[in-house]
């Protein structure tokens, strides 16, 4: 290959990199060490908080055009942690999450728009245990240094997703209402 051809290829590569730079700047990375997905439910009318230890999130947020923003979250159901190994094993069974058949829960946004008090109104599809439903919730966004912090709480009914089958459909022991709380920190 001639020196001229190599210089030409280098020039094209440099031009491509310059053109791609704005797109590269828009990519954000989730800081898993600072992020969390928790749930809160009531067992015998006592609030219980648990967490998912493993999840991934992809957020493409544009403050100037929030309606162009997108988000997806995938949760490793087997990472559910109630703080006790026996309870953790129990909730992965067929009657609860059925993690063997449905190892992931997911959320995919379908729209975001400016809402009240500087929040975003987020709408999307939530899939848990093979069932997908439309959901909406407010999302707050704040800047902390170079990071963006996304906080939200999504109320669901566990029985909508068949979480708690058989004798566990009775909501006297475990309430139907569940709050999915998330705190996602992204870095450029």
From TrEMBL:
Keyword field: Signal
Membrane-spanning intervals of the chain: none
Signal peptide residues on this chain, from the entry's feature table: 1-25
Annotated Gene3D superfamilies: Lipid/polyisoprenoid-binding, YceI-like (2.40.128.110)
All copies of domain Lipid/polyisoprenoid-binding YceI-like, residue ranges: 27-187
Name of the protein in question: Polyisoprenoid-binding protein YceI
Organism: Undibacterium pigrum
């Amino acid at each position: 290959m001639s020196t001229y051809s190599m210089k030409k290829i280098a020039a094209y590569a440099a031009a491509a990199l310059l053109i791609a730079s704005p797109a590269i700047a828009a990519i954000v990375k989730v800081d898993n060490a600072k992020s969390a997905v928790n749930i809160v439910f009531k067992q015998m009318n006592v609030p219980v908080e648990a967490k998912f230890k493993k999840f991934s999130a992809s957020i493409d947020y544009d403050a100037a055009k929030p309606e162009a923003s997108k988000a997806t979250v995938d949760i490793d159901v087997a990472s559910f942690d109630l703080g006790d190994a026996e309870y953790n094993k129990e909730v992965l069974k067929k009657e609860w999450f059925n993690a063997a058949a449905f190892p992931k829960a997911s959320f995919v946004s379908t729209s975001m728009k400016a809402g009240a008090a500087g929040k975003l109104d987020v709408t999307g599809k939530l899939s848990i245990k093979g069932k997908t439903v439309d959901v909406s919730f407010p999302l707050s966004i704040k800047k902390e240094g170079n990071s963006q912090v996304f906080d939200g709480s999504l109320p669901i009914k566990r029985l909508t997703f068949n979480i708690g089958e058989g004798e566990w459909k009775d909501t006297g022991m475990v309430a139907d209402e569940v709050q999915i709380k998330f705190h996602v920190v992204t870095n450029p």
